[in-house]
Structures are given as C-alpha cells and as structure tokens.
Amino acid sequence: MDEFEKKLAKSLVENGHLIPESINEVKMYLDQRELEDVPSNIELDLGSDIERHKYDTRKKTKPAPKLLSLKRPNKGLDTLDKRQVYFRRVVLAGEIVKHLHAEYTFGHVKFMKLMYLCEKICEYNLEMRYSKQAAGPMDNRFIHSIDKEFKKQKWFEVRQEGPYNKYVYRALPGLSKQREYYSKYYSDYDEKIQWLISIFRSNKTEKVELIATIFACWEELLADNSIINDSIIISKVYKWSKEKKKFSEDKIIEGIRWMENNNLFPR
Amino acid sequence: MTKADVTQSPLFNWMSSNHQNRRNIKIPLRKLFDEMALGDKERERSSMAFELFYEQFKNYVYTVCKDFLSTRGIDDKDHLGSFFNNVFVTILQKSEKLKVPDTVPDSEVKYVICSIIGKFIKFEGLQYLRELDSNNSVEIEFIEVYNEDVEENLTGNEGESIPLATLNKALGTLNEQTRLILLECFRYHDENKNIPSKVLDELEKHFGKSRQALRKIKSRALKEIKEIVLNSDDIEITKKTRHG
C-alpha cells in the first residue's frame, strides 16, 4: 500500500465513509458482517430526559457479573489440578476451532457457546467459571487466554483482521499434537462432541446462544430442585437478560424439544 | 423537540404504556417513521412504532456503531452505549422528516431504513469525535439528514487527510459498482492492507467478477481518485500553506 492509499484509507475512516449508507452498501455489509447482539448493559435511556448523552471520559467501575450456580461436582476430574483441567479445556477448544475456523459465522461468541455445550457433554463442572452474559454463559478469562495458549502450543496462529478486529485462526503444524491429546482425553465423548460441532457448523450464532442459555437455565432449575416445565424454562430464559426477548416463546419451546430429541439436556 | 414535548414523546411513554394492548397494533415497516412521528396525537401507536423500530434495528445500529468506533481504535463501552443511545434519540427526534418512499418494494424497505440509519450513525459518530477532540460538549445542530452539507459542517481537514470536499468529489466520479468495491476493500483490509480471502469470495459472488477483475477495478479506481486529489485546488492550497 503506497502513501496515497494510506492517506485515502485514513480519510475514509475519519470522514465516516465506511459506514454503510447506500442501499447496496447496506446489503453488502449485511452479507459480510454478522450482527452483534446489544449487550444487556446497554439500554436506551427511557427517563423523561431524552436528550443526547454527553460522552463521559471518566473511568467507571463495573459490578462483577453474577456467577452461574453450577453445584454439581466434577466427574472424573477431581484428581486433576487447575492447570491440568485448563489444558484439557484448551484441547477441547482446539477441536472446536479446528473444525470451524474456516466458517464465516465462527467468532468468539459462537466459539464460547459451543465450548460451554461441549464441556457440558463432558460433564465438566467448569469451576464456576461461566458467568451470565447477555449472549448466554460466557467464560471471559478462558476466551481471553485461549488465543495465547493456541499460539504457545503452536496449534493456531490467531489474528484480528480488518477494521472490525474479527478473529481469524490459521492452523499451524503443531496441530497434530492436539489430535493426540484429544484422543487421549475425549475418546468417550468424541461422538457427541463431533455431532455438536457439525450440527452448529453453519447455524447462526443465535441458535447456539439459545440452546446454551436454555441449558444453563434448565441446569439452575435442577440445582435448585425446582419444578421444570416449558413455561418455567421460558420464564427463566427471559429473566436471564432483556436481550432474550428476541427469542419468541415458540422458538424457546422449539429449542427445548430439540434438546430433548437430541438428548442434550442437563440431568 | 422542546422540553415541554418531552413527556409526551413516544420514548418517554414507551415503557409506561400497556404492553398487552400494544401487541394488537400492527405497523408495517415502511410506516414506522410516520407512526413514530405521530407523537401525542396517537401516543399508543407512536410508542409501539418506536418499540418495533428499536427491536428490529437495535443490533444493526449497535454493530455499525461498534465498527465505527473500532476503526478508530476506540474500545470504550460507556461511549459505545452513549453513542448507541444518541443515534436512537436523534432518529426519534427527526422521525417526522424521515420517509420510506412509496415506490420502494416491500423486500427493500429494511435496507432503505438501514441506509437512513447509516446517515444518523455517521452524524452521531462525527459529533462524538468532535466532542472528544475539543474536550467540550458543544452540540452541533442537526441541519438536515439528507443534506450532504451536513458532513462538511461536521468535519474539518486534519493533518494528512484528504479534504472532505475533494474526497467526496473523487468518490462521486466513480460508478456505483466501482465505489462499492473500493469501499469494501478499505472496510475489510487487514493490518497488512490485504483483503481476507473470505471477503474476496463474497465480493466475487456479489459482483460476479474474478479476483483479478476486482483488483483491476480497485487499482483503476485508486488511480482515478489520486488524479483528482492531486489536481484539486484544496490540495494546492494545503501545499502552498505548508511551504509558506
């Protein structure tokens, strides 16, 4: 890119020319970009003061997210220390990325939701790591450390590409090692994990989000010894976050039936 | 909107109105702006229209706002929240001036609305940057959403940037397809200024052109823009000023 091109790029950004404005630009943008859900901490100001917000440059502290109450004990992981459990999770994450990194819909949100469901299949207790986020259960510490770990293990090179910093994974020669570890740790669960990965391969992130959220709600009800039926699960999903209103009741019921038919629900 | 109007606004009444009743009101997408603008004449309908508008387009607005900030390396969730909020507030305040033309087919209405939203995000984004730059909160009057002059009132010529008028003029000489391809290339290039192959695949599909043809179009467009920019009076003035 020569000097002029750099200058043009800078000018296009500064003057907002990259915001889709014409109908064709909008269409292309919607083709290329998977829309993100509005996080639960962002809400319209609905008070009587509807004036524009001033941009406050002061630093604010945020309350810690509420942790999910996952009370069931680990099965078969009791003897492992934290580092060993972490490494097993990295191996599992590597399996997901290996199969899905070339998919255009694959990003960190889908990654984390699939990770959550795969870990549930493997009956990991997850050490209370997952917290309630608008898009469903999320393990922030893991998702922020995993890319470095992939690089360290020489399994994937991770880059953020484009002005939107999309995560792009490229397989490295060391990935064959991941296969060995995966066979060692996950052979009992492999069939179900592969099924889960393939079923969500081309699905939109929203579908994975819904299933992961229903799973977490259902599991909480079990942990609390509550009565469980469709309407109680629906109400719990809606209480998870205002964002969940985007799922109609029919959609949630469809999700519950799908989970039952596919034997993917907490016990 | 004056302060006196505020409590009568759809936004203010949005949450307070009866949700069950509002479910029975059906508003076609193309009429959303008209209904939002009804205000206290038809409070229930205008509240519902705004709610529908928000539900339908919030993720689009959020994603574009986030992208706008991230292209400038800004990752401040509070600012993003305010930015997002302000876009909706401004759209609501200007809803009476907004219209989806009757000639637009139903299948295209949502794209037309997104394109209108884009103008508001641009306005709000540039307003935001100006507030940050000047470190004060001088509000800019929203002149007219469809008026191209808005941009010139909002942006100045900074450092090594191409003056806005020149840039607009140069982009204006390109045909729609060429301009789209060029902007897509700049929208998605990576830190090494390469276009990810997945994006190129999409462009190939969308325009029915080979990668080589796309590269040629981009290179020709750059050449044309460069020529216009280098020959423009604005640049001459800048050059003269720099050299005293």
The gist of it:
The complex is a heterodimer of chains A (267) and B (244). By secondary structure, chain A is mainly alpha-helical.
Question: What does this protein structure show overall?
Answer:
- The complex is a heterodimer of chains A (267) and B (244).
- Chain A is mainly alpha-helical.
- Chain A is 50% helix and 7% strand.
- Chain A has helices at residues 3-14, 23-32, 82-100, 108-121, 140-152, 175-186, 190-200, 205-223, 230-240, 249-261; strands spanning 131-133, 136-138, 156-161, 166-171.
- Chain A has a two-stranded antiparallel ribbon.
- The N and C termini of chain A lie far apart (57 Å).
- Chain B is mostly helical.
- In chain B, 64% of the residues lie in helices and 0% in strands.
- Chain B has helices at residues 3-6, 10-13, 19-22, 32-36, 43-70, 77-93, 109-134, 149-154, 164-172, 176-188, 197-207, 211-230, 233-242.
- Chain B is globular and about 55 Å long.
- The N and C termini of chain B lie far apart (47 Å).
- Residues 1-22, 135-159 and 235-244 of chain B have low confidence and may be disordered.
- Classes of the chains: A mainly alpha (267), B mainly alpha (244).
- Chains A and B meet through helix 1 and helix 2 of A and helix 5, helix 6, helix 7, helix 9 and helix 10 of B.
